Amino acid sequence: MIALVTGAGSGIGAAIALRLAADGHAVAVNDLSLAAAEATVAQIAAAGGSARAYAADVSDEAAVGAMVAAVTADLGAPEILVNNAGFGHQAPFLEITPAQFDRMFAVHVRGTYLCTRACLPAMLDRGAGIIVNVASQLGQIGGVELVHYAGAKAAIIGMTKSLAREVSARGVRVNAVAPGPINTPLVEALSEDWKTAKRAELPLGRFGETAEVGGVVSFLCSPDAALFVGQTLGPNSGDVML
């Protein structure tokens, strides 16, 4: 199958792309940075997988349209879409500027909308497709100094449920993944005191690895997940239990 993974130049997105390629899918690796996307493609190629790199800002309608058109011409219409593109930013609510708030929602929420809007018609025409949206446990429980981030992730969870109700009967399965603390450069840059305290809160006692999130996405993209519709799976070390 043809899989498009956004924000796959590093971190969780790269791990998802690597896992889907290992599963035998041809992967279109998107990132804002072409160099980052190409680095992931190189890792996939080294492992014997098939992938191509595509640079695009997922919040830009024209850029998304051009990217999906290029993927379709090069590989075929995406049969799997993983909306992973995003970024983090922490600030007290009153210090979040309107521009910062708007950019957070533009990338996470508008980006998910635009990429889905671009890929969905071909899926519906085929009567088959898989969409996985990467949210966060903070979209379920909130986070201090993360109103804009948690709000955007909560919106993605709501979008996932609503679209699943709309298109599942037409053969397109839509689900979400809401990771907890994962060993990424963003988390690794936090203070040792914070990391020690957070690990102590987790029933599992450790942070997750990006490959473990990739495994959850792999499952949702497999026939074994045929009954999963509008669900939000939580690889979060037990931090959130629903």
From TrEMBL:
Pfam families: adh_short_C2 (PF13561). GO terms for biological process: monocarboxylic acid metabolic process. The keyword Ion transport does not apply. It comes from the Bacteria. The keyword Cell wall biogenesis/degradation does not apply. Keywords: Oxidoreductase. GO terms for molecular function: oxidoreductase activity. Belongs to the short-chain dehydrogenases/reductases (SDR) family. PANTHER family: 3-OXOACYL-(ACYL-CARRIER-PROTEIN) REDUCTASE, 3-OXOACYL-[ACYL-CARRIER-PROTEIN] REDUCTASE FABG. This is SDR family oxidoreductase.
